[in-house]
Amino acid sequence: MSEGLAFLATCDLVALVRGRALRKDSVLVSEKTVGWVPADISLSAFGSIEEPNPFGSWGDLRLVADPSTEVSLSTIAEVGRPLSVFLANQVLPDGSPWDCDLRTHAQRSIAELNSRYGIDLVASFEHEFVLVDPFTAEGSPFGLDSFRLAEPFGSDLFESLAANGLEPENWLAEYGAGQFEITVRPAPAMVAADRAILLREIVRDVARIHGKRASFSPLPKIDGVGNGVHVHLSLYKDGEPVTYDSTQPGGISHLASTAFAGILEHAAALQAWTAPSQISSYRLKPHRWSSGGAFAAVQDREALLRICPLVKIGSGDPIQSFNVEYRAADATANPWVVISVLTRALIAGLDAGKPISKIYTLDDPATADSVPTLPNSLEEAISELLNDVTVLSWFSPDLLEAHLGIRRNEARELAELTPSEKCERYFRVY
Ligand code: GLU
Ligand code: MG
After folding, report:
1. Which tens digit of pLDDT belongs to each residue from 60-76?
2. What's the pTM value of the predicted model, to 2 decimals?
3. The domain made up of 105-429 is a member of CATH 3.30.590.10
């Protein structure tokens, strides 16, 4: 008997999940692949394909399911059959990798960090989103009232994430009206990126079941609070954590400092990949607790790289969980791309061999004129990208052109809108 449908999914350059379904039993037993079209990677967030694009009407791909990524949507509270979703790599019809496939891109970057430096990257994506519901929005920041107003959505979400193996850790009402945050346990970087993609879909789906909508848009309202995607990163060698060293500034080891220096060095170009929408840069400003400049600091929520505290309370080895948080990503960026470019930047840092020159602390905080600013707009970030030969070298010409084409297209599509109207457009998509 058929067990229902399985959706083979890819996540594209605008971080939307697309794909096709087939009978689940055929995914598990025989087929595992469905057809796909190269030009789909040139879709904008608003559903139009940039013309011209590197692919045109030509070519064929296959989506190949990775069985380890299976999750079941709608397991909670809904009558009807669950839908299995599998993340998939896009390959050519002969099975060879497609050089614009973003999952493959991330897998290659992670493998390179390991083969060149013996380092395994562990990561966790922390997501904020807004629950669109007038009642919930009336709760207080971080309040038990907000938490309760979101029930039973919150408990169902937590349960669905747990049942699907995503290992949720914290579920909280955030600062903004109707804003919430969900965190999951750290995992090997590829698993973490897969989880980030699946988590967003599970959040949206559980919200849908409860008659609500969840939006991860970086800035739902121009004068409101931003939704960040913070990526916690730590380095391991031979299964041992190597990020911490109590004798070094900020407690960050020489090796880790050298690697993370690569993220600071290439911060402006990275922003074109990790915060790639027309409104992403509105969020990345001082006093928004997002990231107010390209600097590293101990426990500062306005740093690009926040060195998180060594938590000594509770069970477990605190050094295992010591990590550095990259704060300039948002949900308009594909998590595979985010992990891929951050990994490449770590490699670039290790290649350059210079530790972070200055780590700010509470006693010696960053000031607006002491740190490099982040690009003010996507256009600025893209021109930084086009001047950064190291970052450019990470992408095939087709993939780079697809990315730039989408960004041109989105800029054109929204050209006549005010910043507030732009926020409204993205809010409806993300
Ligand atoms: N909402 C903030 C952002 O846009 C983050 C607040 C926090 O959790 O520190 O990144
Ligand atoms: Mg938060």
Report:
1. 999 999 999 999 997 65
2. 0.96
3. yes
